[in-house]
Amino acid sequence: MAACGRVQLLLLLLTAQCCFVLLVAGLRPPASVNLHPPLIAINRPLKAGAAPNGGNAGAASSVSQPRRSGGWKLAEEEACREDLSRHCPKHTWNNNLAVLECLQDTKEEIDISADCNHLLWNYKLNLTTDQKFESVAVEVCKSTISELKECADEERGKGFLVSCLVDHRGNITEYQCHQYITKMTSIIFSDYRLICGFMDKCREDINVLHCGSITTGEKDLHSQGEVIACLEKALVREAEQQGKAQQIREECKKSIMRVAELSSDDFHLDRYLYFSCRDDRERFCENTQAGEGRVYKCLFNHKFEEAMSEKCRDALTTRQKLIAQDYKVSYSLAKSCKADLRKYRCNLDTNLPRAREARLSYLLLCLESAVHRGRMVSGECQGEMLDYRRMLMEDFSLSPEIVLHCRGEIEAHCSGLHRKGRTLHCLMRVGRGDKGPIDNLCQNALQALIQSADPGADYRIDRALNEACESVIQTACKHIRNGDPMILSCLMEHLYTEKMVEDCEHRLLELQYFISRDWKLDPVLYRKCQNDASRLCHTHGWNETSELMPPGAVFSCLYRHAYRTEEQGRRLDPEQHLTRDCKVEVQRILHQRALDVKLDPELQKRCMTDLGKWCSEKTETGQELECLQDHLEDLVSDCRDVVGNLTELESEDIQIEALLIRACEPVIQSHCHDVADNQIDTGDLMECLVQNKHQKEMNDKCAVGVTHFQLIQMKDFRFSYKFKMACKEDVLKLCPNIKKKVDVVICLSTTVRNDTLQDVKEQRVSLKCRRQLRVEELEMSEDIRLEPELHDSCKKDINRFCSAVSFGNAQVIECLKENKQHLTHTCHQKVFKLQETEMMDPELDYQLMRVCKQMIKRFCAESDAKNMLHCLKQNKNSELMDPKCKQMITKRQITQSTDYRLNPVLRKACKADIPKFCQNILNKASDDNELEGEVISCLKLKYADQRLSTDCEDQIRVILQESALDYRLDPQLQLHCKDEITHLCAEEAAAQEQTGQVEECLKNNLLKLKQEACKKEVLNMLKESKADIFVDPVLHTACALDLKHHCAAITPGRGRQMSCLMEALQDKRVRLQPECKKRLQDRIDMWSYAAKVAPAEGFSDLAVQVMTSPSKNYILFMIALAICTLFLVGLLCGRITKRVTRELKDR
């Protein structure tokens, strides 16, 4: 028998597979064997210690009997003959192992007879328990056994040796031994009942979990793989439903994981996955050679392809979940990283339970820590790590903590998004707070997964991000090496730009939200700052945490050290400063975080309540932080401190405001490129932007951004240190010996105002100082207490008229304006001066800017600040105008109508006309009291006489049109007709919307007017309306169609369109609208009465009356006829007179 064994061994060495077939040929079941052997034979595992009853006898019998030529063949057995002929090619019939492989790998849908199934079962059972094969293993694997101490110590003759070699087949280097053990492995793993020790350890769990039967005949060949698959799924389910799922016994758990580990190199050994993925393997991995886990990896890479079958996808997911629980289930990962794991002691932590050491996440964290510390990890291992990090990011279900703790969030917000990492990104979005609150355990699970996968080191790990941002990377970041960590930084730099696409924007912010909460997840920051963090912030290793210094607090510590200056305290020890490289990285992160408040963990944590209270509607880019800054005084203490510190930080380094820097890029390139190129900004760039605010390269966005930043500085004195720095030289030159801040502001403001009034070409106060001065002026305009001189002058008036009004929001100042006519003389003077300043610069009118803030954005976003009120007046009657803003604009118009000095546009346009025509009024005027509209009334009369300059005429026309609609804009009319309006036009005056009804009422009641002053004002209105029909809104509305039909070609102004209508009225061929005809006739009657009551005062008035008369043509004809008649009479009468003789002439 020994000689026979040696002959067979020699043949095996020549041709391993063929000779192995000859070797096992002697193990045919005896003719007398029952194809349904006793239960004990079926139940006995490989390490049972003895062969099954009948099985051993049969084997021994067959060995002792003379062998037929060619040996016993499965193909000759009647039980399998028909199945062979149907499923296996003839060239395999002479090779028992080829027949076995053919039949046991048959597709599920093909039935094999029960007798053949059991014949194959007995054959395989004999193979795995016969002592003869153990002796062959000893001969073939002699050197291997001597190297493997565990196998050398196994008791011989009980089948333990072969099982041990199967367990350690990854360490076998002998070719013949490896071939032999591989064949034995394929036989053992074809049925879970043949796997060493598996039955003893998992029998109870199989029955409890109803994973299948252990009795022959109740399960066919293929269903045996499903039993292991069922146990594997139960093991996964237990991890995902802690305390709720059926518990598996610990020894069975180990057996399940050991089976998964032993089947990790060849996917044929995972029978359930093999049968589930046979077609998919042919479809996706046809050219992938089996062995070393290559087919597994190929299928993993195609897991989410549309053509992948659901059954295969489920089987692959189960195996991936097992890998997540124990990295050794991945053959390629365990093999590639074995040396690195040992080198960096990733599985020798005695403080951790063994189960955690085996987890994929623990392995990744340990090796990632080594990489981040600059240690050498083999390229092969890093490649495997990259694959499995990508795997974790693609499928959230591979993380049992997320499945366990995020179930509610997934069902509520993220169902149906399983593939390609979409569910994970949806959960990230929920974690950001974009879809409602999230459970803390779910948030922590997401953070742990992000740390394990470490997508910040290579964006390609995040498939959802990679696909969404591919186009952006190809265009905006093509200069960066593929896979470089700076790709994410590049994407952040292009956030909210034209190159960014919406889907990429969402995926990027979702990922950055979690990266921003652990400074270690930014590999560049960690590499440059790990020494500083350890020295200054007492941090621990990359994969270690500390309650005293959690990951989110480390960055706060770093940026506090980055921006410490000597002005903030005593000189710091150089050891307390960050290195230059680290400070640059801290600035980079701050620039990125400024794009979204949710990327600043401390800000979001402390300001969550205020964000909801004040900024819930601020959803556009950068609006939330601006909103918090706008409401700084309203924020809770903790939030106010954070926002205040951040704003103070911005004042030192404006480049943190990335959106503002982008908007100001043209100005920076043209005027500020020198300071912008400095890596460490000390406020110079903001100063430069302020200085160049009115350069031609300055666009609206940049101007608005710079102005907003200046406005925010007024909220806190800490933000005004730039005012001192910017105006230092101006104070020395213009305001020497003045030290109080309020006095300096008043001094500089007076200088700026005087220069503006005199239209000087170059302001004496520098541009940078004027901008800083504006911040202080805005702050002073908000509260009268910030202007001590005004406050002291009006104390009595405030107590008398405004005692119930609260300080702040310029409410007291507005109250004084409304009661201006009743104020004491001193207070009246101060308020008039204040109004004059505000009219010249409407930005200082706090109430106007506050009430009309949204309307300014809607209608006047592009208007210059000094023309803001003019722009609002032009849009006052728009349907989109806010009623409160419209009311405020009317108040300011009433104020302007009281004195031409309160209307800068009119004052400039009529600069020459006012002293020319209204000097007598100016002679009696004072510098600080209103003229009650006298100058404007004077200009109105000259407008009717058509004697004004073009610019002045245009402005007076606008005033006439406005006052014709609202009598309150005509102070002289309101003053002289006060009683008449009360008695005759009370209903019209009480109307909320003034559309000229009071003026029309006074015209209609002209004959009833008693006071001459009032009658004169109404007559002046009639006179003005003759000069321009637009001044008469009632008539213009009634005749709008007739003007369009009969006078469209007539240029407006100077009474031309009115004359056109009069001629049309006289022409019987023209039919005017009845209402127009009636209104015209009424106006003719009024003008006739006016001519009688107020005859022309001079030749010029007479000429005007003639030219504007409806009978102008008739009058001119008669005048011309009279002149011609006079000429002819003179000519004829001269000939009749006595002639003088020539002699008399010649004397």
UniProtKB/TrEMBL annotation:
<dbReference type="GO" id="GO:0000139">
    <property type="term" value="C:Golgi membrane"/>
</dbReference>
<dbReference type="Pfam" id="PF00839">
    <property type="entry name" value="Cys_rich_FGFR"/>
</dbReference>
<keyword id="KW-0325">Glycoprotein</keyword>
<feature type="repeat" description="Cys-rich GLG1">
    <location>
        <begin position="1009"/>
        <end position="1069"/>
    </location>
</feature>
<feature type="repeat" description="Cys-rich GLG1">
    <location>
        <begin position="499"/>
        <end position="566"/>
    </location>
</feature>
<feature type="repeat" description="Cys-rich GLG1">
    <location>
        <begin position="247"/>
        <end position="307"/>
    </location>
</feature>
<feature type="repeat" description="Cys-rich GLG1">
    <location>
        <begin position="880"/>
        <end position="947"/>
    </location>
</feature>
<feature type="repeat" description="Cys-rich GLG1">
    <location>
        <begin position="577"/>
        <end position="636"/>
    </location>
</feature>
<dbReference type="GO" id="GO:0017134">
    <property type="term" value="F:fibroblast growth factor binding"/>
</dbReference>
<keyword id="KW-0812">Transmembrane</keyword>
<dbReference type="InterPro" id="IPR017873">
    <property type="entry name" value="Cys-rich_GLG1_repeat_euk"/>
</dbReference>
<keyword id="KW-0732">Signal</keyword>
<dbReference type="InterPro" id="IPR039728">
    <property type="entry name" value="GLG1"/>
</dbReference>
<dbReference type="InterPro" id="IPR001893">
    <property type="entry name" value="Cys-rich_GLG1_repeat"/>
</dbReference>
<feature type="signal peptide">
    <location>
        <begin position="1"/>
        <end position="26"/>
    </location>
</feature>
<feature type="repeat" description="Cys-rich GLG1">
    <location>
        <begin position="764"/>
        <end position="824"/>
    </location>
</feature>
<keyword id="KW-0730">Sialic acid</keyword>
<feature type="repeat" description="Cys-rich GLG1">
    <location>
        <begin position="376"/>
        <end position="435"/>
    </location>
</feature>
<feature type="transmembrane region" description="Helical">
    <location>
        <begin position="1114"/>
        <end position="1137"/>
    </location>
</feature>
<protein>
    <recommendedName>
        <fullName>Golgi apparatus protein 1</fullName>
    </recommendedName>
</protein>
<keyword id="KW-1133">Transmembrane helix</keyword>
<feature type="repeat" description="Cys-rich GLG1">
    <location>
        <begin position="697"/>
        <end position="756"/>
    </location>
</feature>
<keyword id="KW-0472">Membrane</keyword>
<keyword id="KW-0677">Repeat</keyword>
